[in-house]
Design the sequence.
């Protein structure tokens, strides 16, 4: 008898039993990857790098600020005011009443310029001092750099802050000066606002001198050529009174002199309908 091999019909093959992603893994040239699989050597040697732009901007900003602060610090040291005669850093701290730890702070500075050119941010870096001492030190260093401490005589103070006098300050007025003043007053409109700061610079004289001269030339002759009416009443007294008004506020009346402001003749006639309401002690 002849043996005929049996063939199973309908039995699935290995390819049919493979999962659906097996074909994609084979096409990619490798097997499926899991988290615990071994990392390729090339990937471990050259890991992926990403540029952190935010950190780069912060580092660049800090670098620029540090370079700017260093430059300003050198400028402050170069132009730092000299110490008063016989003064040291310790003398400065004692005169301002620094308190405990003055010697330790003074020993931190080798030069006077390094101490007096400090800013508030530099003072915060001084160790082992109280907050009140930091604020007080910052205040007195600022006053010293502006020439306001220690106290000086009035003559020296005026010499420091008096400024330079104007070219025509204190000189007599001439007809040409009066003409220029009237032209500038018309140009800057002296009847509106306060133009005397501009007129003062153009004339090289003080503001009050220009204003007073304009009053003599224009205001007084104009007011003397006419008459004025003046009436003072008690109508300014507060109408709403309650417990919070403990005292009636005083009124100040500034009455111009009759020399420059002549009064008009009194011609006041109250209508008959209002005469019964009039109070002589008021108006």
Sequence:
């Amino acid at each position: 008898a002849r043996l005929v091999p049996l063939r199973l019909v309908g039995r699935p093959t290995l390819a049919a039993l493979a999962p659906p992603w097996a074909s994609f893994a084979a096409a990619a040239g490798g097997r499926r990857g899991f988290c615990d699989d071994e990392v390729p050597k090339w990937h471990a040697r050259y890991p992926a790098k990403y540029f952190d732009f935010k950190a780069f901007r912060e580092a660049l900003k800090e670098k620029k600020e540090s370079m700017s602060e260093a430059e300003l610090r050198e400028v402050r040291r170069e132009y730092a005011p000299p110490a008063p005669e016989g003064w040291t850093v310790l003398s400065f701290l004692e005169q301002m009443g620094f308190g405990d730890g003055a010697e330790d702070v003074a020993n931190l500075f080798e030069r006077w310029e390094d101490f007096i050119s400090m800013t508030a941010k530099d003072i915060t870096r001084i160790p082992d001092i109280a907050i009140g001492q930091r604020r007080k030190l910052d205040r007195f260093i600022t006053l010293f750099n502006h020439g306001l401490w220690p106290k000086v005589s009035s003559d020296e103070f005026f010499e420091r802050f008096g400024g330079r006098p104007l070219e025509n300050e204190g000189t007599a007025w001439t007809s040409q000066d009066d003409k220029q003043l009237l032209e500038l007053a018309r140009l800057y409109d002296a009847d509106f606002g306060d133009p005397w700061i501009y007129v003062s610079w153009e004339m090289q004289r003080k503001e009050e001198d220009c204003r007073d001269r304009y009053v003599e030339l224009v205001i007084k002759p104009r007011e003397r050529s006419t008459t004025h009416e003046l009436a003072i009443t008690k109508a300014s007294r507060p109408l709403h009174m309650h417990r919070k008004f403990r005292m009636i506020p005083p009124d100040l009346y500034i009455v111009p002199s009759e020399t420059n402001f002549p009064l008009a003749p009194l011609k006041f006639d109250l209508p008959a309908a209002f005469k019964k309401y009039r109070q002589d002690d008021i108006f």
